[in-house]
What does this fold into?
Amino acid sequence: MTAAVALALKRLTVMREGERRALDGVVLSIRPGERVAVIGPSGAGKTTLLRVLATALRQTDGSVEILGTDPWALDAGARRRLRARIGLIHQAPPLPPRQRVVTAVLAGRLGSWPLWKALVSLAYPLDMAGARAELARLDLSDRLFDRCDRLSGGQAQRVGIARVLYQQPELILADEPVSALDPALANHTVGVLAAEAQARGVTLFASLHAVDLALAHFPRIVGLRDGRVAFDLPTEQIDAQRLDQLYSQEGYLPTQEGRPFEASRNRPLQSPLCK
Amino acid sequence: MKSAWLAGTALILGLVWASAAFLRLDPAGLFAAGTLGAFGKFVGEFFPPDLSAPFLSQIAWGTLETLAISAVATLLAALGGIMIALPAAGRFGPLPQLASRFVLNALRSIPELVFAALMVLAAGLGPFAGTLALALHTTGVLGRLFAEALENAPSEPADALVNSGASRVSVFFYATLPGVLPQCVAYSLYRWEINIRMAAVLGFVGAGGLGQMLYVSLSLFHSPQACSVILAMLLIVMLVDEASALLRRSMA
Amino acid sequence: MQVAAALAPAERDPARWARVAIVTLALLLLWPGIRLTEFNPAALVDPANLRVMGQFLGQFFPPALSQEFLLLVGRSTLETLAIANVGIALAFLVAFPLSIATTAVLSQSSLGPARDAGLRRAIRYPLRLFVILLRGIPELVWALLLVRAVGLGATAGVLALAITYGGMLAKVYAEIYESTGTRAARALMESGSGRVQAFFYGVLPSSMREMVSYTVYRWECAVRASVIMGFVGAGGLGQQLELSMRMLNGAEACTFLATFLLLVMLADAVSNFFRRALA
It folds into this structure.
């Protein structure tokens, strides 16, 4: 079942802590198979937006349509089936410390596995080859039988990504998926994620703190600021002025290296990583 | 400050004196020559302890029975505890939470020995009654500890799986349980240590183990045998103490 | 990518043998456990047992509340409280000198080679062993023995508490001295004062609060224990509860049980109040 739009948000508003609007009238429409990055200063509402899209948070006002349905109009069982089609990559992957990597990755498919299979797999992992294949894409296949608390932050983050790839969702949401990785590895990992999404025809919507990563791997960029969409443009049309405006509070453009993003005002931007 | 301590001491002394008077304790009678002699004779009958091979093998059997009672009871209690802890931690809404907390409190406040007397009625004399009694009380204790562990465990791993469409049962086994399991195991081991000691004395009301042996041998005035049973109990208590201290030190 | 290479033909979980071993071991231990405990859930639904249990529990409501009976309940409750009070007081008398004698804080030999160190050790170690003996045997066992020595009733309970709790208090007091009073005691002993002086001027002042707090906590435990010891004939509420259970008088058992729970809650509240006041 393919919907005409993967994601459709109309005047989406989310109130947090009483009167503060974390999201304020967001309008967004994403076609199936599109790869979109959302960027913006911290506190712009990126995480809130992703949580709404992952059906982890219900909007205060406006409408949300995910994979062709309004998740909050569904009954619990149907919502569960919808959630199995959405994969959310967390910034800090919530893995139980003593669980083994193989189990943590296989947990991605709990939404589609029958209960007996889930329980048997706890005693003896049922799809080790599948889990290893996803980990291999992220250069982690040698950690298959390690415990999650023995992983570094970056390795845990990649296990979180492998879990969502293993889930085989139709929509992948990623909330700062590479924040714990060093620049070269982050670039590689986002590249893998984007390539996998393209190869599988999956919609990818990722928030990224590093602007250069977004520009390098995503054809469409949404700028979010103070809970509103500041711009929503193809990557070629993003120039330094827009980015300066978006990040004017922070004073500089956050990049992989953490140093100011050097770009001339007149040329289209080129990421240092995609020369 | 000084006067407060003084007043407190006076109050305590008064209370103790009143209590002794209420009980009509007779220290003079207790230490009179005749009583002391009788007491000495009573103690003397216990020595030397009966160390004959057949009786020692009976004691070994009783010790094994005591260990089995404590272990099976703790296992049952851990299973029962986690099952009641889930509603008690509020996983199924407020009403089941209130009800399950009430059950846990009731189980916890009724002592093992009362349960044992009840279970002897329900299941007949023997170690099975003792096992059930210990399990019931321990379920209350462990259930409460498990519920606290569940409430304090981070919910992110479980939330993540819920958001990927996993069912409640699989979320429990893949995220919630792994998060609390180490703590639950530690609590259960700690409780097992206490239960070994308890299982040794539950037999006084007919619930099997070394306790029942002691009770029977005392009732039959087989004092040397009673002495050996007491020595076995002392040995168990000291061994368990040492073992748990060792375990704690190695884990710390 | 080398995905194909990673797909080894027949992957095996490296933990499989460990898991099989653990499960096998657990089953091997569980089986004798089940046999030894004569595990038999069928006994619970045995009609004869069910009838006895049903009748007994059926009588719980309404509980016995006649005036004469309530007087008995009141008297045995007071008796239980009195046993706990006197028991703790005697335990304190046993524990206090023992704790001074056995604590390592006041060890002369820890200062360096002391005169007659061998003799001091020869006294201290048997005393420590004695303390272990006191608290190593549960109070219920002491009560059972003492009931045979001094007869049914409160005296056995009081003495059992004095013995076991005496041992417990002696051990914990000694630990308190070691955790709070080391430095002051050392200074005093280095300036030549004896064990007892060093204790009263160097150790006791800083340890007092914690000692009182722990003794209050033990009193709370003693209330509970004195009820339980009643089950083997050591007087008070427990003895009455056991009696009514043996007579299968559910109504009386219910009242006694409720009183017991109330008493324990009360003791808990009193002990918490005092310990918070001391903290």
User: Anything to note?
Assistant: The longest helix of chain C spans residues 67-102. The interface with chain A takes residues 1-3, 6-8, 11, 13-16, 19 of chain C (CB under 8 Å). Confidence is low (pLDDT under 50) at residues 1-7 of chain C.
